[in-house]
Amino acid sequence: MDTLLNRFLGYVQHDTRPEEGSVTCPSSMKQTEFAEMLVAELRSVGLSDVRMSGHGYVTARLKSNIKSQKPVIGFIAHMDTSPDAPSSNVNPQVHEKYDGKDIILNEKKGIRLSPGEFRELKKYKGQTIITTDGTTLLGADDKAGIAEIVTAMERMIADPSLKHGDIRIAFTPDEEIGRGADKFDVDAFNSDYAYTLDGGMIGELEFENFNAASAVIKITGRSVHPGTAKGTMINSIKLAQELDAMLPARERPQFTAGYQGFFHLYDLKGTVEETTMKYIIRDHDSTKFNARKEIIENAVNMLRGKYKHAEVNLILKDQYFNMKEIIEANFFIIDEAVKAYRKAGIEPIIKPVRGGTDGARLSFMGLPCPNLFTGGHNYHGRFEYIPLQSMEKAVEVIINLSASETFPKV
For 2-209+322-403, which CATH class? Predict the structure, then answer.
């Protein structure tokens, strides 16, 4: 597992944070630099048709080593990390033979990863745990997926006894800001089916995800000297608070799980004169999803009606939809994944994604694409960690899927 570990440790030290306000693709030059590095590595590993598109998408091919014709299988991961957590100067920590107790992430700052707070940590006693140093995210979402895919390809090239058909791989930019599939050329990728490696703990297998929308609300009030403000000031910050209070109080991320949807206010910047609020809206059920968008629209309209001299503008955009209907029409993709998991000694945990993946968009673009685990926990934050043994099992699953003899041909 040394190669897998060292590859991952190298990847996470590349800052690939996207820039949400950018109009370019990739949104950040750092992603382009990482993509260029991956192109060189894929060529050195021995893959063919290695390319980087003008929009920073990295693709490659592992040619079939059998005579019989098999469906072309794709494996996809994204290069960027969450924009919501510090991601520069990542300093990963490797903890061998984890003893089941608190892991000290940063002794100087008193930051520790505790199984008392993160109960699943105890499952990995005796394993090698990779963590942050408590000051940044780790970046296993989704550099673990990239490392697992590259390592699986490398092993299949090195061992001709591992029989497989044609395989395509792709690494995408800007998934974390909802643009990962925007410039993805499905026809050029030329794959019958694909899997994203973008899931969490070992065993997770996902083919349902949120329907997703974004809402940006800009409130323009009226700033007046507070000494003479009676009857004239319109404080846009207070209007923003009032609008947020109109949304269901218990339908926020911290109160929901499973199939429960939510409204999430993730950015708020304001002055008396002007305040901007940014929400994400999520629900697995399409009817409930549409109702949530209506709730936001009604709240905006109520505020407009109440404050005639304020401006309240809403930009509401759909981002992606639940891939369930596409995958259910091609359910053998899940059956094949279940076989690959069990061959690796893993019992699948089939559950809905409380988020999105490139696979959701790609499924609606004609490439059925469920989501496999990478092995990570606590994504997008300072307490992110991943067991090396879970990553190794992800590599094994990729190889098992590549060797499958029972995929039907489209």
Answer: alpha beta
| Fold (CATH) for 211-317 | Alpha-Beta Plaits (3.30.70)
Separation between Cα atoms, residue 226 and residue 240, nearest integer Å: 19
Catalytic-labelled residue, pool 15, 80, 148, 283: 80
Beta-strand relationship, 193-197 and 73-78: parallel
Residue 18, preceding bond cis, omega within 30 degrees?
no
pTM of the shown model: 0.89
pLDDT tens profile 263-315: 999 999 999 999 999 999 999 999 999 999 999 999 999 999 999 999 999 99
Whether 175 sits among the annotated catalytic residues: the reply is yes
Tokens of 98: 């984890």
Catalytic residue among 142, 174, 175, 208: 175
Question: Rounded to whole angstroms, how far apart are CA atoms 302 and 280?
Answer: 20
Distance between CA 297 and CA 65 in Å, rounded?
Answer: 56
Local structure of 146: helix, strand or coil:
helix
- Coil, strand or helix at 171: strand
pLDDT at 406: 86
User: Of 280, 287, 364, 284, whose CA–CA distance to 316 is shortest?
Assistant: 280
Length of the chain: 410
- List the domain boundaries for the chain: 2-209+322-403, 211-317
- CA-CA distance, 41 to 29, in Å (whole number)? 19
36 is catalytic: no
Provide the residue type at 144 as one letter. Answer: A
174 φ/ψ sector (left φ>0, alpha ψ -120 to 50, else beta): left
Report the side by side order of strands in the sheet with 129-131: 93-95, 129-131, 385-387
